[in-house]
Amino acid sequence: MFLKFLNSKKRIHKVIKQILISLLFIGLVFLSIPLYTKFNTFKIAEIQGISVYTADKENKQNMIHIIDTCMQQIKDHGIPHKFKETIVFCTDAKEYNRRTFFRGGGTLAKNIYFMRIIICAPADFSINRQYPRHENLHARRLSDVLVHELMHSYLYKKMGLIHFKKMMISENWKSEGFSDYIANSSSLDIEEGKRIFIANDNEQKEIEAGKDIWKYVYFYFKSRLKVDYLLSYKKMPFDDFINTKFDEQELENEIRDALQKGLYTFDKQ
């Protein structure tokens, strides 16, 4: 009986030890991510709660101007949020891929939500332009890209981890569409996107079934279109938009009909 008790106690100690080791490992990961993403950079500014890091000191004033433009755009939309994010501006693709743990791909920026870190791909800081991922795509303002990423942070903070992650899995169009809606920017030409959405069902299906960049670019465009329709045209309250479970096909048919009848216009870039 005594030996059985000792063995039981040893098993408990072993489990506790494993839990402590796991917690220590998780803690080290949480500590190492900010250090890794900001390694060999300098903090050049702090603007309205946004800490700005880069290895490119020569573009300091240009970067500050870009952040100011971004924050003014968010303010103009009346977003009631105080940010505490860190933005890391990368100077070349190799640095961007390294800081995003080689998951940058063709993205313009990466948002590590739970760490409040946004890593930005190379750009022309002097003219506030993000390099397009394809020659037929629009070059976007870097400040618009940052607005997009900060809106993800806003939704994450407002909704909480579980609700936000649930939306990102089952209704990702809401997050991406709202972010591009506030940024007032798309990589796809608006008229081209509407042409595909309204009149060419086969082309739309082919794009959505593909695995190249056009699938994602069109998804972002269509997501923004749906959010603009709901928030700007139908004047739906934000909380209703977030909490309503939409039939996407029904919503898209409604928007298509409104566009064709001229009841709703979407001519923003």
Briefly summarize what is shown.
This protein is α/β, with parallel strands linked by helices and 269 residues long.
Q: How many H/I helices?
A: 11
Instruction: Catalogue the unreliable spans.
Output: none
Radius of gyration: 22 Å
Instruction: Return the string of H and E elements.
Output: HEEHEHEEEEEHHHHHHHH
Strand order of the biggest β-sheet: 1-2-3-5-4
β-sheet strand percentage: 5-15%
For the record, what CATH class of the largest domain applies? Answer: Alpha Beta
Residue-averaged pLDDT:
88
Structural class: alpha/beta
User: Biggest sheet, open or closed, and with what strands and sense?
Assistant: 5 strands, mixed
What features would you describe in this structure?
The chain is α/β, with parallel strands linked by helices and 269 residues long. It folds into two domains: 33-170, Glutaredoxin, CATH 3.40.30; 186-269, no CATH class. The protein contains eleven helices and eight strands. It has helices at residues 2-38, 60-76, 93-99, 142-159, 161-170, 172-183, 190-199, 201-209, 213-233, 238-243, 248-260; strands at 42-47, 50-54, 86-89, 109-112, 117-120, 123-124, 129-130, 140-141. The strands form two sheets. The protein has a five-stranded mixed beta sheet, sandwiched between helices. A hairpin with a 2-residue loop joins β1 (42-47) and β2 (50-54). α2 crosses α4. The longest helix is centred in the N-terminal third of the chain and has 37 residues, at 2-38. It is globular. The mean pLDDT is 88.
